[in-house]
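Supplementary material to the annual report.
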Amino acid sequence: MKPIPGWADVILIPLVSVVLAALCAAVLVLAIDENPVEAMKLMIDGTLFRSAGWGFMLYYTTNFIFTGLAVSIAFHAALFNIGGEGQAMLGGLGVALVCLFIPWPHWTLAIIGASVGAMVFGAIWAAIPAYLQAKRGSHIVITTIMFNFIAAALLNYLLVNTLKPVGSMDPATASFPAGTHLPTFQDMAALVGFDGMFRGSPANVSFFLAIIACVALWALIWRTRLGYQIRALGHSPSAAQYAGISPAKIIVVTMLISGGLAGMMAVNTTQGEAERLILNFTEGAGFLGIAVALMGRSHPFGVFLAALLFGFLFQGGAELGFWTSIPRELILVIQALVILFVGALDNMVRMMVGQVFGLIGYKEAA
Amino acid sequence: MSFMKSILGSAAALALTAGAAAADPAIIFDLGGKFDKSFNEAAFSGAQRWAEETGGSFREIELQNEAQREQALRRFAEAGSNPIVMAGFAFASALGEVAKDYPDTSFVIIDMVVGEPNVRSVVFNEHEGSYLVGMMAAMASKSNTVGFIGGMDIPLIRRFACGYAQGVKAANPDATVVANMTGTTPAAWNDPVKGSELTKAQISQGADVVYAAAGGTGVGVLQTAADEGILSIGVDSNQNYLHPGKVLTSMMKRVDNAVYNAFKDGPGLETGFNVMGLANGGVGYAMDENNAELVSADMKAMVDGASMKIQSGELKVHDYMSDESCPALSF
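Predicted assembly:
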């Protein structure tokens, strides 16, 4: 394969992939007799030119940052954590227990408590597959995906049988008390005099938690000893072991961090948006985190950008649903096309870009 | 400031494009999707019937995730849709928030009660309809074993199961009811393959009539039952036509009527609590040419007798939702 400069690898390839995906999507939209230009305009207008559109986009983005970071940190240790969905579900359980059974005086304290609950529960759920991988050699891909189903069943059991208020049809807990309600972007905008901005949109302060998580994870991976050990294990387990790093320990620690991050997503959805624990609040964000991490090259800043893109696609997709007759299956296909081009067809795009750079005479600096 | 302007400008443009559809009704389908051959599809057919009869048009959306519930309600209300009908109990908490902000818009929620002055809450007595088809199942069964396959394990589906089991025991106290739920995630509403597997498992336990209350999953149940030569019972819509002569009956839950009535009543419709039971044709069992040969005269007489008794209040079918327990079936 032809060499390409570093900036092209990080920026150009994802960009080309997204454009290719958009072109494919446009052909599909044409095929069902809708206007792709009109559709694109609707997506952009409804997302970027309305404050509530931003509110929804950043809400989805927050979820994807957390689950994307969770997958990224595991990638650095050459672990493939596809259990983000289940870890997030357990995180939701942690948030719900903390919010329901501790009387919080103010949200600033409640968000700390809920974050701890989310991380601990998410981490515990990741710890079992991690232990099995580290000590028993059970493959983490298999065990984490199985734990997704166990988490779904556990959550369902608890919501239907114990946590649901008697007489309620909805398998969900009671609403959290007011002391735990997080300020949304709407509240924050009203505070500085922009009444009515972000109206009815779910983005809340946990978006800033997600940004903090990005910075913290960057520091952890590239500025600490633990981060170095994680990367060393990821590059070569035998070399890492030879250098005195215990693979079992690093696997478990990495997965604990990964599970904790996935669980954090629940602070946004459960405490921030629904203000009660509902079934199915993860909405596949745990799986989407894989695409986000792939697209973001497992770098926290890349994850942030990729999460923004997927946030845009989700909110834009909703706008298509509202105002056109494009069926939601096709909206899903459009989102899937992005994942396909970015994740699976990465090498194809890389080869094309490499050819172009070869033509203009680029050579790798020796 | 120019940013604010562009926001306002695009909002105005959007309001203009949406203006064409002002005062049209809107319907919001739940996550199962509108072509689930069951609950959502029944709601869609009610809307469709209204559109055909009046020549009107309506807005619709199939939700993709939970956060969109409130968003969909607000966007449609802002665009001037009225009334706005939502198919599914899961809208309750979102509607509780939104209804207050749009006092001039009428909302209709199906399967749940929301106590706002501009909301009509439509609930169905599924346990009563299930009781009737349970009696029919017990009488049609030769093995004295009948099956129940639910969708997702939630209280609403247990209410179906509990009513059914009571009906079975009423017609034949010695009969056994085998009950299974398809799953614990919303995917259980749309998993015909799993429905088919469960049907085979219940057949191996001796069941020769199975009742599917499982949304799109039921398509697999009915298919397998027809393939294996046993009888099945459909749900929500009249599903007798899917396998003529193989579907004993369908427990009709007239979601279509609820939607049709709401659209017909239009903006400013009468709000409040609206129970659709046996008495007002909200639930019932389906009879047509596809199952005429399967239902004998005394089967029909007995079921109709029970139906009269339920309507007069002489016979009370236990509602699982009232105390979360079931005398005829344990979960």
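Chain A is about 75% helix and 0% strand.
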